[in-house]
Queue: 2 jobs
Job 1
Amino acid sequence: MNMNRRDALAPDVNLEEITSSKQNAEVMRRLRDNIRWEGNTLCITEGVDDDNDDDDNDDNEEMVFSIREGDDLSWLGYFIGRNQSLDDLSVEFMPEERERVDAFIDGVSHNRSMRELAALAGTDIRVRKLYPFFRENNNLTKICLYHAVIGRECASDLALALSQRQVKSLTAFCLRDNNLGDEGFADIVQALGTQPQLEQLICPRNNIGRISCEALGALMMIWRMSNLKYLHLPNNSIDDAGLQALVPGLCNSSNLEQLSISDPITAVGLRYLSPFLQSGSCRLRFLNIRSVRFGDAEAAALAYALSGNKSLTTFCLPNQEYEDEECAITEAGWSAFSKLLCDTSSINNTYLSNHTLTYIIENSMDDTHIADLLKMNEAAKNMRNREIAMQSLTRSKILMSHPDLDMEPLFLYKLKFLPLITNWFRRSIQLCSDEVGRWKESVPKMQSRELSAVYKFVRGMPLLASDGYWTNVLNDSQAEKRKLQMMLKRAEENERCALKRLRR
């Protein structure tokens, strides 16, 4: 039965006769009459014959349609297709009868009001039949397809439908467990280039690899995905070479905030992330590498890649309790993160350490020093005045890591730098407090360190101190001599003037 024929029959159809429960009949009534409800979301689930769900939809934010044997899915699809109020449709179950499913999808494909469509695990919704919906629904912002079994031909058709969309409204695209393959995903990526508003691309477990990364990286390079904020590609076939192909595009994505990657990436691939993470335009806040086989080499590579990064606050590591001994992080690996957070090799390197990373999500991490440094970074992040917070944090790390400050590099500036040293210590007494974490030092001890630094500074240049004294004596003597010369000159002028008057 076509849509026009159903249009004529819809007002008089007996909803109780085409549904298996009062709940399902009420769902169809609201869809038919365009009655809005809180949330405007419809969830289609599998019904159980002995369910007593007649009142389940009374106060829910989402309507639930539980499919049983007596439900006419062709009418359900029709009412969804003609409805102008439905915002979100979540399909969690479809029966095995092919004709019932096809009739349902034929109706849904006519909907033009829906903003989000999700086909969840265990469903087969015939993606190809939804192409008119994908192509012509100008309100659509989010597509999620799980376990849809999208092959190469189906992916190409889906890509064509997406590329023909006239309104650029799509902001989120999620394909999970679809076994797309490299070529299929590459086709879809090219089509997504026509959707510049896309913010989320979530594609785990799709067997995508280097070809897809090259296509995605090239697309991001030419600013076709300049608004992308979330890129999740875990549990695929992306190796080090694939990640390397993706990095130039990442470097061009100044809005990217979250990135998820996984095996078979190794330490080599993590080092490839360096240009992106060390870029001044990097805005990444969350890095998920939970599925990477992570050992000391990977820890050192990631710490190196993060040197100079000023945006990342959280990264997620694999749970070491379930890792093989060969790829578990040892003390050597944790020391790389410790150096990243507070490099004690010099005062300048301590100042240039990472002060933004606040969380390392790893359940078995027992390094208390790293935990304290992360808490210091977090405390500074929570302070209202960002400038004062950074001054307080860097000074705390310097004073904590360098109990005996080396003054020799400052000898270059001679004694004129001495007042700056004393001012630095006095300002540090005001700034360094328990607000920035675990470290705090008493005022008397800080004053003692100030005196010690001044003493070492003066002791390191005794000739300059001695020369300074005699230079001042010389300057005072010369000033007094000039003053006496001026007085003598004035007296001689007065004498000549007096003799001249007397001779008259």
Note: The CA atoms of residues 189 and 216 lie 6 Å apart.
Job 2
Amino acid sequence: ISRVTNQAATAERSAREKEDAYKRDQESTKRKDQLNNDLTKLTELDKELDKQIMPVRTHLMQKESDRDRMRDANAQEDGMLSNQLKDFERDMDKLKEVNDKIDQYVRSNKDNEIHEVDQKLLRNAEDISSGEGKLTEMKPELENLKKQVEDGDRQKKTIQDNLELFKLEKTLNQLQEEIKNLQDEVAAMGGDDAREKHQVAVTNIRQQQSKIERYNGRMQGLTEQKRNLRRKLNEPEYKGVDERQRTKMIEHETTNIVVTDLDKYYDALDKALLRYHGMKINDINKIIRELWTLTYKGEDITNIEIQSGQDSGARANRSYNYRIVMSKGSTQMDMRGRCSAGQRVLASIVIRLALAETFCLNCGVVALDEPTTNLDFENKRGLAIALGQIIASRAAQSNFQLVVITHDEDFVSMMKQELSSQTGFNMPERYYQVSREEGHDGRFYSKINAVDWDDL
């Protein structure tokens, strides 16, 4: 009755609120229509005013353009007059300078100085004319002297040529005597055979000299290359290159050894992980088998377990495809799509409890939210028995806590009966009931009450 009364009061308040909202909407609609009418009138008035003000704007724009044009014309005329005034002032200054120079010339009495300069120019012209006459008279004598000098040069050259001829004749005679002596020596040495041997020897000498020159050129190139290499070795880029090469070789070999060791470590770790994975899967399946046998009361599924299929590929990209398999006798098949909703919920709870038992030994908090969804009475009882045994086995653990959130009071009663039958731990004193109540301000609040187990 209280809940129905609260619903009626809520519905009445909602109706009043909707009625007030409807009235406000009606008033807002009327106000909106009135404002739209006012806006239409103002728009029409604005259009009429725009039509009336348009000729005035046009006339005003014409007047403004005339004013700007007159201002530009006046500014140009003012600039032209200013330039003419400046030109006139410059001409007046130049005229004053010329007038000052004329006055200065008149006061300086320069006529006498000009007359003296003219007299000096006349005397210089007379001296130049007399000098030109003397030069004309001396030209024949200069010609004779030039001829004598040229004849002396020819005689000197003739004498020098004769001396050179005498020297050449003397040298020729000496060479003829040497040739004769050499011919006599050649005849004494064997004649034509010696000449041929001499020619062969000369040819060999020339060949050896050409080889020596080639080798010398090659040696010079190698020497220059050696000098360049030594210069490069003294540069900072190549200085101490032997020590650096030795260091890098040590680093390279050390890195290869480290890589080899890491490969061995990786292989060992990979095998250990595979072995650990298999061991943990076996442990999880063992706990799942025990919990499933304890909780599931049906006869169509004997056991469920987790199976993993390893994908082929590189070690770094290895992954596992986990699937839940249910078995009946020796027959196995995937559980996905072949089980009921209750079986799926129970399998989910059992698998999570097994994972917690295996991997969360130091973390003793287990929370279950509505664990009995879609479970029948027998499976609820089996779940209560399994949870009771887990609580009894974990009672000695200081940080263990089981949190169960449920609307099923039958399941809570089953948990109480199962815990009462267990020994070796203290029975929980109470459980907590959460309800929803309406406050004095009309709002609903959650309320938590601690209820003794005996009141259940």
Note: The CA atoms of residues 79 and 85 lie 10 Å apart.
